[in-house]
């Protein structure tokens, strides 16, 4: 799974990333500053996990509240200046009104095969209107979700297997990159008829701030 650094000791990811192996901290490591998954790089560091917190309302059947916070061992990131936390959205920030220039990143496959990339991939895509998402996914799409994809029939862009937990970031007007979504689920990869679904980070602003101690 992917994850996003949001504070010196915290990363944001999907709760369903811990569905298979549980949330025992010794089962996982967090690799920060990675580009090539098999080649050690200058600014790449790997850290142990101190705590894994799934959102208390996470539903593994509906994928609602699909969010988790992972605490790295305290103070481990103080010396890495090349890796910086992304900005968080404010509560009830109107994403569709403000977000532009959006990207997803990850090591997942492209949807045309089961191939998983060794190097970090990125792709630009568009946030889709809420009505479009609700009509497509019917009762499974909630107010705590975003959906995104390509609006061009010849350019199909989507997250896929292996991208779970990774970020959907957009450039905020006036500058600054904000993590508006966390890769969650979808019905298919790279099909115009089925966009990807992302956990809407702004819906969880208060929970995130409370957990990481910014309140």
From TrEMBL:
Its domain of life reads Eukaryota
GO BP, sorted A to Z: proteolysis
SMART domains according to UniProt: Tryp_SPc
Q: Give GO MF terms, alphabetically.
A: serine-type endopeptidase activity
Q: Tell me the keywords, alphabetical order.
A: Disulfide bond, Hydrolase, Protease, Serine protease
- Domain Peptidase S1, by residue range, is 1-213
Q: What name appears for this protein in its UniProt entry?
A: Peptidase S1 domain-containing protein
The source organism is Tetraodon nigroviridis
């Amino acid at each position: 799974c992917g994850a996003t650094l949001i504070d010196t000791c915290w990363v944001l990811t999907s709760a369903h990333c811990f569905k298979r192996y549980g949330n025992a901290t010794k089962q996982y490591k967090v690799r920060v500053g990675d580009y090539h998954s098999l080649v050690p790089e200058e600014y790449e560091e790997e850290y142990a996990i101190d705590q894994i917190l799934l959102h208390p309302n996470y539903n593994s059947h509906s994928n609602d509240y699909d969010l988790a916070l992972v605490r790295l061992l305290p103070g481990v990131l103080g010396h890495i200046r090349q890796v910086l936390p992304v900005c968080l959205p404010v509560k009830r920030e109107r994403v569709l009104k403000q977000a532009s220039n959006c990207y997803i990143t990850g090591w997942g496959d492209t949807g045309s095969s089961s191939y998983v990339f060794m190097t970090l991939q990125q792709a630009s895509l568009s946030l889709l209107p809420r009505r479009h998402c609700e009509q497509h996914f019917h009762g499974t799409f909630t107010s705590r979700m975003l959906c995104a994809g390509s609006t061009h029939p010849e350019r199909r862009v989507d997250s896929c297997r292996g991208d779970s937990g990774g970020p959907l970031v957009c450039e905020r007007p006036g500058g600054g990159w904000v993590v508006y979504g966390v890769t969650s689920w979808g019905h298919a990869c790279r099909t115009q008829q089925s966009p990807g679904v992302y956990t809407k980070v702004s819906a969880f602003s208060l929970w995130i701030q409370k957990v990481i101690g910014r309140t």
